[in-house]
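Researcher: Next entry in the queue.
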Amino acid sequence: MLLDESGNKRVAPVPVVTQVVRSNIEVHTRMADAYAREEPHYRAENQAKVKANLLRVSERTGTGQMLDIGCGAGFVIDLMRDTFSQIHGIDATPAMLDRIDISSGNVTLHEGVAESLPFEDARFDLVTAYSVFHHLADHRPVLAEAFRVLRPGGVLYVDLEPNRAFWRAIEALEQGHEREPAILDEIVTREIQAVRHVADDVQARFGIEPEVFRTAEYIKAHLGGFESVEFEQDAVGAGFRSCDTTYEWFLGQGQLMHGVSFEAAATTESHLRRLLPLTAHLFKYLRFEVLK
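Model: Structure for this entry, 292 residues:
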């Protein structure tokens, strides 16, 4: 569930939902040309990780019909076009849809919003939403829509969602550093900039007003992302049988991969996972695999 700063249940009114959609269209229209070249999730190591996860899930669901919600420039579609018989992608931004290759003949694109999917009930084996849910005003209607269009036994795959524990830890660190300055590692200072000041960077590069960008990343900007137990409860509340959470991308993992070795990064990741939940705040993102 979404909570405000006082711990009360938060429900985004319809005008907020509309404004969030409009802000996302503005942001992603301006960023469309650079998106596939510059977004970190297009790096080879992340593409390999996501593809391996999706192939594992597809062994469970079958490879007939897949829907990618918030498909953007086709990140997930490109990974799965050779696996599924039919893939449908839906996004609110035409400029992003225009960048998707549909020449394989099994990809169909739709302009629309995640809160109202133009598909019949129980159609899809797999529904994916990669780096999408934090762009919503309220994720619960989208959980309900995903449940509706999945067949029994189908899976909703949600990935690269901001981990609220990490975001809050970074916020507390920056505030503490402002009160009592100390020497911080460059990895930490870079992450403070990425988490706390990314809207200013986006304005400098793309001319997007910070408030528009923050509205486009509504759940991340206003609530600091997701808390695993709350999301799991919301998924079950939408009708799903179960929701499994995985913590992804610990702080500095990319630098360790490329600065030391992939083996060193894998060893560190394994060790940090063993120490969960104590180490939960060190992982930047959450992945959810939700079973209907």
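Model: The two ends are 19 Å apart (CA to CA).
Researcher: Noted, moving on.
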